[in-house]
Amino acid sequence: MELLGRPIDEPAVNARLDALVARNARASGGVMEVLNLIGTQAEGLLDRLPAGARTRIGAVTERALHHAAEAAHGTRATVPDLPAWRARLLTTAMGAAGGMGGLPTALAELPVTVTVLMRAIQDVAGDHGFDPSEPGVRFDSITVFGSAGPLARDDGANLGLIGTRVTLTGAALNALIARVAPRLATVLGQKLAAQTVPVLGAAAGAATNYAYTRYYQDMAHVHFGLRRLAIEADREMDEMVAAFRARAGDNERRHPRA
After folding, report:
1. With 0-12 CB in 10 A as exposed, 13-18 as middle and 19+ as buried, what is 138?
2. Which of 23, 89, 112, 231 is deepest in the core (most CB within 10 A)?
3. What three-state secondary structure class fits 167?
4. pLDDT digits (tens, 9 = 90+) for 64-99
5. Where are the domains of the chain?
C-alpha cells in the first residue's frame, strides 16, 4: 500500500508502538486467568491428554490450516465482517458444543474453530486497511497463528514470524504452515486438555475458546498494526519490528511475569 501524505512523526510512532507493546503483553493474561478460573494448572497441561489425542492434534491442525485461509475468505461473500465480540461469541458457543461430548467432539470442533479464528484474523486485517482478498494478506493471516501460545514465556517468540516476506507460491505456503502448525497444535492441545476437566467440559470449552479467540485477535492487531505503522511512518517493516521488540523487551524487564 502506498503512503498518502507526509509520514507520521516520531512521537506518534512511539505512542503507537507503545500501545501495540501493551496489547501484546496483555494478550496472554486473559488466557491464564481463564485456565486458573476453571481449575486447570498450566504446567503439564498437555500431559492430561492421551498419547493418541496428542498425535491427532498435530495432524488435524495442519490440515485445518491448509483449508482455513481459503475457507475463511470464501465466507466473506456471504457473511459480513463480524465485530470482534461476535467472533468471540461464535467460538464460545462452538467450544461449549465441542466440550459437551468430551474429547471426540472437542477434536471434531478444532478445524471449525481454526476456520473461524482465521476469519476473525482476516477481519482485523481489514480493520487496519488491508484487503483480505489479497493473497499476501491471507498469507500473513496464517503467520499470526505463529504467535507463541499463551503459556510461552518468550515475548520475542510472539514476533518470530512477523515480517516474513516470501514469494507467494504453493511451496512457500506449505513451508509456512509446517512452521506454524506445531505452535498452533500446542495451543489447541492446551485448550483440549482444559476441556477434559470432569463435569466442566462444556464450560471449559466455551471459556478457553473465548480466551484464545481474543488472544489471536490481539496478535492480529499487533501484526497488522505494525504493518500499517510501517506504511504510515514510511519505514521498512524490519526496522519497525526491531523497534517493537526492543520496547517489548524493556517492558518485560520492567514488569516480569510471575
Report:
1. buried
2. 231
3. coil
4. 998 887 777 777 767 777 788 889 999 999 999 988
5. 10-254
